[in-house]
Amino acid sequence: SFPWLGGLSFNFDATTTYNRRKHTSLTGDLLQYARSSGTDLSQLRSETVPEMDYDYNIHADLGKGKGLFGRSMYSWLKIDYRYKQTFRSGHRDLSENDGWQGDGLTPSADAPEEWVLDQANSFHTTRMERNHNLKTSASWLPIGPLWLNLSVDMKFIDRRIHDLRDGADRTYARKSFTWEPEAELKWWNETLDMGIGYRHEQGLPDIFYLLDVRDDSDPLSHSLGNSSLRSSQTHVGFAYFKYKTQEHQRMLNVNARYNKSDRLVALARFYDLATGVTTTRPENIDGNWDASLSANYTQALGQQDRWTIQGEAKGTFLHSVDFASDNPSASLP
Fold it and tell me: Which residues 6+ apart lie within 8 Å of 50 measured at CB?
């Protein structure tokens, strides 16, 4: 903090983590699939996901504030920068046994030559993600106790994934830019605090979903990638009312919220009536929204305020949209 520069302040911090697994799990006769589990004596799977990962963060912010009207509230401008780098590495080895030597009840004890690596469903994957996050926010009092907050959160993300399976190397890279603005208008005094606001959010699909690969290790449940996935868009509206007094420490809070989301990533399901195979593929789904309203009240009881009474009520309405079809070649509307 630098008082001689008119209230200018500067903060800086850095963190890092590193993890590495030397132990590889062996699931034995029980094969755990991504969506379901089952006992298949003809399969063995060993995996570590991830077997090594690290990330580090660098964060700095610069702010300047000015007191107004002799109050403890300030107008201020703040610029916040954060850098994060993340690396992940993992693998899965899936072996098949089409012929038995022995009793067939303990496949891990059968002759080694009977186990054949399923190259199409065994893979080694590494990921690298670099995230630059720049957030600018400002607040000021334009009229009396009226308080206005404005901010925009900008993210520059560089992602890369390398996947080796079935004798083929696949590398997928994507650079993305997202921005998330927020505005809030509030009115404040010693007993009342009320406001209304709007925020726009964006979410990137997991880069693993963008790989154009097929996983059919479960004969009845296949999964596909989708390289055409887009970022999700969420519109958030919120309002709140807070009342408090020193008398009996009374507090009343009322909060309302509405979320409207489009292009959310969901696993669309396609069922083949002829073969009994269910195929899942990540898709962007529109039309999800939810609304909630909550209220709580608290106050102290008794001449010396030794007792407290508290009540709370909350209601939520959720409209959820997904996709399923018994036509394997169907497409989303």
Answer: 21, 88, 89, 90
On whether the CB atoms of residues 64 and 9 are closer than 8 A, the answer is yes
State how beta strands 264-271 and 324-325 pair: parallel
Are residues 24 and 52 in contact, defined by beta-carbon separation less than 8 angstroms? no
The candidate with the shortest Cα–Cα distance to 298, out of 310, 290, 287, is: 310
Residue 119 DSSP SS3: helix
What is this structure's pTM? 0.75
CB contact set of 177 (below 8 Å; sequence gap of 6+): 154, 155, 156, 157
pLDDT of 81 higher than 60: yes
> Which among 318, 209, 224, 327 is positioned nearest to 279, based on CA atoms?
224
CA atoms within 13 A on the CB side of 298: 11
For the chain, give the mean pLDDT.
Answer: 80
SS3 category, 107: helix
* Average pLDDT over every residue of 20-29: 48
d(CA 182, CA 238): 11
